[in-house]
User: Which sequence fits this backbone?
């Protein structure tokens, strides 16, 4: 699967940003530049090209929540 068109990446970006805001409480501006997946036998390879913009406080909160 390949998502690289401006329309689809914009749509996925808005959906992902809203989901992160609603579920995790982080106000993150997401710009998905590309998504590619490849399935070989029983393994899946996913390549994401994403830009995120968030405040320093939200970054610190996010890092703490994942154990850094």
Assistant:
């Amino acid at each position: 699967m390949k998502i690289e068109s401006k329309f689809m990446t914009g749509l996925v970006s808005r959906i992902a940003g809203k989901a992160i805001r609603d579920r995790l409480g982080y106000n993150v501006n997401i710009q998905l530049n590309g998504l590619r997946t490849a399935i070989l036998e029983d393994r899946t390879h996913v390549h994401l090209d994403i830009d995120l913009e968030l405040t320093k406080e939200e970054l610190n909160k996010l890092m703490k929540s994942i154990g850094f």
User: Anything to note?
Assistant: The chain has a mean pLDDT of 91. The radius of gyration is 14 Å. The beta strands are 2-3, 29-40, 43-53.
